[in-house]
């Protein structure tokens, strides 16, 4: 049977992704590694510029990815169950977009073939955040540059 030229994220349902395909959806922006507040009445999410202590800001990766949920109990592993209501994820998150039936953004590494478009396009938190160990009152760190 000939291999399809249609990318897997278009030709497959989220439930059909291999573990490698699932992990490749993450663009590495690290927006999900930021502390945030939720307005309980409106479910509006307010991001801060304060990141998890395990975020390596040089490449926006977790310093201990395999143990992230052990190290940080609030760290959420993205699963199909989580995607049932992904409102709290950044609007540009590939997991959220696909769960909502939307396409990946044109700068996504799966679309472009490299992370540079995402990084140089300003879609990463790299160089724009502070470690939680150096933050004071989180309410003083709310930002408006994340959607």
Please provide a written account of the structure.
A hairpin with a 4-residue loop joins strand 3 and strand 4. The chain has one domain. The model has no long low-confidence stretch (mean pLDDT 93). It has 6 helices and 5 strands, in the order H-H-E-E-E-E-H-H-H-H-E. The strands form 2 sheets. It has a 3-stranded mixed beta sheet with strand order 1-2-5, with no helix packed on it. Strands 3-4 form a two-stranded antiparallel sheet. It is an alpha+beta fold. This is UPF0260 protein FHP88_10175. Pfam families: CxxCxxCC. Belongs to the UPF0260 family.
Briefly summarize what is shown.
The chain has 147 residues and is of the alpha+beta class. The protein has helices at 8-11, 19-24, 68-71, 94-99, 109-112, 116-120, and strands spanning 34-38, 45-51, 55-56, 61-62, 130-131.
Order of helices and strands: HHEEEEHHHHE
Estimate the mean pLDDT confidence: 93
How much helix, percentage-wise, in residues? 10-25%
From the helix content, strand content and strand pairing, which structural class follows? alpha+beta
Query: What is the approximate shape?
Result: globular
């Amino acid at each position: 049977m000939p291999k399809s030229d249609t990318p897997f994220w278009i030709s497959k349902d989220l439930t059909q992704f291999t573990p490698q395909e699932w992990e490749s959806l993450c663009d590495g922006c690290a927006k999900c590694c930021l502390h945030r507040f939720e307005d309980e009445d409106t479910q509006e999410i307010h991001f801060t510029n304060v990141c998890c202590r395990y975020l390596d800001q040089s490449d926006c990766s977790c310093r201990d990815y395999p143990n992230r949920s052990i190290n940080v109990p609030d760290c959420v592993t993205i699963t199909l169950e989580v995607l049932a209501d992904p409102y709290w994820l950044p609007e540009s998150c590939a997991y959220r977009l696909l769960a909502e039936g939307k396409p990946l953004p044109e700068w996504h590494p799966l679309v472009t073939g490299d992370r540079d478009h995402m990084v140089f396009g300003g879609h990463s938190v790299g160089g724009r955040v502070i470690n939680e160990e150096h933050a004071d009152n989180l309410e003083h760190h709310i930002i408006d540059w994340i959607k």
